[in-house]
Design goal:
WH_DNA-bd_sf; WH-like_DNA-bd_sf; alpha+beta; single chain; 3-stranded antiparallel beta sheet; 2 domains; Lrp/AsnC family transcriptional regulator; TFIIIC_Bblock-bd
């Protein structure tokens, strides 16, 4: 991905409600044709979705980043699922003993593999 494509993707990703394509090219300080080519590459690679949108009676597109599926292996350590999933405890990340134990197990696994 080129630098300008990465920048466009980051802008789109930073706005969960979406970014209008007619605004994106202005923010990137590029012409609308170049912006269209960048948007096409991002939609073809399924990183964003492009939704038809009318703004002040003018047709444009709303661009939204697609949510990627989480790699399940990132939620496991020592065969144990990330303890925060489904947890109902009232704690903070810095003080959660379940999370600390899980992270310790993850560190052991990484050290053992290295």
């Amino acid at each position: 991905m080129s630098e300008i494509e990465e920048e466009a993707f980051k802008i789109i990703q930073s706005k969960p409600e979406g970014v209008l394509q007619s605004e994106l090219w202005k923010v990137l300080d590029i012409d609308s044709r170049k912006c269209s080519r960048i948007v096409k590459k991002l939609t073809d690679s399924e990183q964003i979705e492009r939704i038809e949108y009318k703004s002040d009676g003018v047709k444009t597109y709303l661009l939204k980043a697609r949510k990627r599926a989480v790699n399940p292996s990132l939620l496991l350590a020592g065969g144990e699922l990330l303890p925060c999933i489904g947890c109902e405890e009232e704690c903070t990340v810095e003080e959660c003993p379940y999370l600390m134990d899980w992270m310790y197990q993850l560190a052991i696994e990484e050290f053992s593999e290295g």
